[in-house]
C-alpha cells in the first residue's frame, strides 16, 4: 500500500462528503446504497482513491482507483471495517461485490457463497454457512416430498394461515422459515411466536429461523428498503442460489410455495424469479392465490393499516385469534403505538 495514503471517515451526513463519495462510486457504475451506516476511504492528499462502506454485517460499495490497485489497498479497507464491526460485537461479515472482484477477497480469507447474475456474495468469520447447515440437519425428515415457505409475517394473518394450511396438504413435511432480519414493526421474536401459536393444529409444519441466509440484509438487502432497480433481480437470484445450493438439499425440499403478490412490486419480482429459476434447480415453485376479504386480498400491510386507523372490525376479519390476543398484551400495545406513529409502506 502507498505509505502516503491517509485513511479517513467519509461523513455521508455532510452533503459535500456524500457528494464526493457518490461521484467516486459513479466512475465504477456503482451507487451509494440507502442503508449505509459508515463509509471510509483512502485519500491521496485530498483526492479519494479507494472506499468501502458497511450496513449491518455487509461490506459493500467497494471501489479502488485504477492507479492504486495491486497495493493491498482492499486489504486495508476490509481490515479497518472488520475492526470496527468487531468493536460492535460483529465477528462475521459478508462482502457483496462484482464477479470480477471475487479473487481479491478470496485472497484475504473470504469464502465464496453464491452468485446472482454478475454479483457474488462471500463471507468470513464465525457461524458461517456450514454451521447453519448443521442446525438444519437437526430437522432432517425421511419424508420424500418436503415443501417450504419463507415468510416475514409482519404480523401473522389469516392469509398466512391459509397459505400454510393449504400447502401443508401438498407435501409430507412443510418447513416454514421466518425471516429473522429485525427490520419489521413486529420484532422477529414475536413474529415467530405468532406463527408457532397460529399453526399448532398443522401437524406436519416445522417452524425454523431464517438466519443470515434466507432473505437477509446480506442475501437480499433491497427487500428491506423496497428498492426496485437493476440490482433487485441480481439479489433475488443470489438469495435463491443460496437456498438451492445449501438449504434445499439438506432438508430434501422439493417444492417451494409462496402466496400471490398483487401489491408489493418487490415480492412480486421475487416470485417471478423463483418461478423462472427454481424448476431449473429441481425444485417446483407453486404460487397460491391469496384469500380475499370484501374483494381485497388479505395482507400484513392491510392489517397494519387497520391497526393504524383503529379499524377493529376489519382487523378481526384479517387476523387469527392468536394474533388478536397478542395485540392486547403489553408487547402488542407497544407495537400498536409504534405503528400509529409510523407511515405504512
Structure description:
This protein has helices at 15-26, 73-87, 102-106, 129-136, 158-168, 188-198, 222-225, 230-251, 265-277, 300-308, 312-318, 321-327, 330-340; strands at 6-9, 38-44, 47-55, 58-64, 92-98, 111-116, 119-125, 146-151, 173-178, 205-209, 253-259, 284-288, 292-293, 296-297. It has 345 residues and is an alpha/beta fold. The strands form three sheets. The protein has a seven-stranded mixed β-sheet with strand order 1-2-3-4-5-7-6, with helices on both faces. Strands 10-9-8-11-12 form a five-stranded parallel β-sheet, with helices on both faces. Strands 13-14 form a two-stranded antiparallel ribbon. The longest helix is centred in the C-terminal third of the chain and has 22 residues, at 230-251. The mean pLDDT is 91.
Q: Count the helices. How many?
A: 13
SS content category: alpha/beta
Number of strands: 14
Number of domains: 2
Please give the order of strands in the largest beta sheet.
1-2-3-4-5-7-6
Layout: helices, strands, pairs:
Layout: E1 6-9, H1 15-26, E2 38-44, E3 47-55, E4 58-64, H2 73-87, E5 92-98, H3 102-106, E6 111-116, E7 119-125, H4 129-136, E8 146-151, H5 158-168, E9 173-178, H6 188-198, E10 205-209, H7 222-225, H8 230-251, E11 253-259, H9 265-277, E12 284-288, E13 292-293, E14 296-297, H10 300-308, H11 312-318, H12 321-327, H13 330-340
Parallel strand pairs: 4-5, 8-9, 8-11, 9-10, 11-12
Antiparallel strand pairs: 1-2, 2-3, 3-4, 5-7, 6-7, 13-14
Helix pairs in contact: 8-9, 10-11
Short description:
By secondary structure, the protein is α/β, with parallel strands linked by helices. Helices cover 39% and strands 23% of the residues. The protein has two domains: 6-126, Gcn5-related N-acetyltransferase (GNAT) (Aminopeptidase, 3-Layer(aba) Sandwich); 131-340, HUPs (Rossmann fold, 3-Layer(aba) Sandwich), CATH 3.40.50.620.
Amino acid at each position: 500500500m502507498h505509505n502516503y495514503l491517509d485513511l479517513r471517515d467519509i461523513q455521508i451526513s455532510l452533503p459535500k462528503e456524500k457528494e464526493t463519495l457518490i461521484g467516486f462510486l459513479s466512475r465504477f457504475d456503482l451507487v451509494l446504497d440507502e442503508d449505509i451506516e459508515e463509509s471510509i476511504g483512502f485519500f491521496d492528499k485530498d483526492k479519494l482513491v479507494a472506499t468501502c462502506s458497511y450496513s449491518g454485517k455487509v461490506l459493500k460499495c467497494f471501489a479502488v482507483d485504477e492507479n492504486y490497485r495491486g497495493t493491498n489497498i482492499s486489504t486495508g479497507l476490509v481490515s479497518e471495517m472488520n475492526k470496527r464491526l468487531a468493536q460492535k460485537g460483529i465477528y462475521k461479515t459478508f462482502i457483496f461485490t462484482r464477479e470480477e472482484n471475487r479473487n481479491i477477497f478470496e485472497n484475504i480469507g473470504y469464502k465464496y457463497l453464491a452468485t446472482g447474475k454478475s454479483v457474488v456474495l462471500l463471507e468470513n468469520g464465525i457461524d458461517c454457512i456450514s454451521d447453519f447447515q448443521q442446525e438444519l440437519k437437526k430437522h432432517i425428515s425421511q419424508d420424500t416430498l418436503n415443501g417450504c415457505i419463507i415468510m416475514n409475517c409482519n404480523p401473522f394473518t389469516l392469509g398466512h394461515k391459509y397459505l400454510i394450511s393449504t400447502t401443508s396438504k401438498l407435501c409430507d413435511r412443510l418447513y416454514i422459515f421466518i425471516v429473522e432480519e429485525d427490520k419489521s414493526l413486529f420484532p422477529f421474536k414475536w413474529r415467530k411466536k405468532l406463527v408457532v401459536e397460529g399453526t399448532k393444529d398443522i401437524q406436519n409444519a416445522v417452524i425454523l429461523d431464517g438466519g443470515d441466509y434466507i432473505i437477509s440484509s446480506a442475501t437480499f438487502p433491497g427487500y428491506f428498503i423496497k428498492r426496485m432497480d437493476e440490482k433487485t433481480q441480481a439479489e433475488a437470484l443470489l438469495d435463491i442460489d443460496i437456498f438451492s445450493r445449501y438449504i434445499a438439499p439438506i432438508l430434501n425440499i422439493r417444492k417451494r410455495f409462496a402466496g400471490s403478490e398483487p401489491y408489493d412490486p418487490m415480492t412480486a419480482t421475487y416470485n417471478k424469479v423463483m418461478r423462472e429459476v427454481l424448476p431449473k434447480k429441481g425444485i417446483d415453485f407453486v404460487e397460491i392465490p391469496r384469500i380475499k376479504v370484501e374483494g381485497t386480498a388479505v395482507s400484513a400491510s392491510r392489517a397494519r393499516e387497520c391497526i393504524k386507523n383503529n379499524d377493529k372490525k376489519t382487523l378481526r376479519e384479517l387476523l387469527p385469534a392468536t394474533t388478536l390476543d397478542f395485540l392486547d398484551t403489553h408487547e402488542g400495545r407497544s407495537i400498536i403505538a409504534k405503528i400509529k406513529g409510523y407511515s405504512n409502506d
